[in-house]
Amino acid sequence: MGVVLGTFSIQPKQVNYRRDKVDDELEMTMVCHRPEGLDQLEAQTNFTKQELQVLYRGFKNECPSGVVNEETFKHIYAQFFPHGDASTYAHYLFRAFDTTNNGSIKFEEFVMGLSTLLRGTVREKLEWTFHLYDINRDGFISKEEMTEIVRAIYDMMGKYTYPALKGDVPKQHVDAFFQKMDKNKDGVVTLEEFILACQEDEMMMRSMQLFENVM
Question: How do residues 77-104 score in pLDDT, each as one tens digit?
């Protein structure tokens, strides 16, 4: 369980800073959507201005229009998991990044989510992950919602990663996690129950933060 990201082959720490800010600002005027200024994004995220410049270049290389729709997102994401079917998980991940619910992800939305996942506090990361699992956005995670996400992750990893999996393994994992999380046994998990369970169980915390090892 967790958030698994490929993130458009963007690696802020492994880049060559060749162009300066003037070039980046100039390029930002040449796309359909112009993101907010780097100074503003630097203030809103945990990235430096240089890292934001690199992230923007990687985003623009994959999405020249300045925005990415779900089909493009799925296509890019599938390249990171060639042995499985990443389409369902990519759908849910796209919805989590699409904070305005308009069917597309702007650079600002992408980099804000990435900042939380890579550089946020433990609580911020868990809040983001809760939002991913809360498929219907009602403020609770049901067992059905958790099962849907977990199955999507297993499908994405594919048979080469889990060659001996039986069909009921995802359900077994969800049952075990849900039993620990649903403190008051009302059939749903609230944000506070989710965070408390993860903080109390080191193994659960690690599983919920898979994204830290995948970037």
Answer: 898 888 889 999 999 999 999 999 999 9
- Residue 68, beta-bridge partner list: 105
Residue 5 CA to residue 90 CA, distance in Å, equals 9
Please state, in angstroms and rounded to a whole number, the distance separating the CA atoms of residues 100 and 109: 9
Tabulate helix, strand, coil % of the chain (nearest 5). 60, 5, 35
Q: Write down the pLDDT at residue 171.
A: 85
For tokens 């809360």, name the residue. Answer: 134
> Is the confidence at residue 47, as pLDDT, over 50?
yes
Q: Do 177 and 191 form a contact (C-beta atoms < 8 A)?
A: no
Give the containing element (helix H, strand E) for 171: helix 169-181
Q: Are 6 and 80 in contact (CB under 8 A)?
A: yes
- For 123, the token pair is 């609580």
Tell me: the pLDDT tens digits for 1-27? 556 555 444 444 444 444 445 444 444
Name the CA dihedral angle for 86, 88, 91, 96, rounded to a multiple of 10 degrees: -90
**Spatial distance between the Cα atoms of 81 and 72, rounded to a whole number of angstroms:** 15
pTM comes to 0.79
State the residue for tokens 């620990």. Answer: 180
Are the beta carbons of 2 and 177 closer than 8 angstroms? Answer: no
Please give the single-letter amino acid code of residue 4.
Answer: V
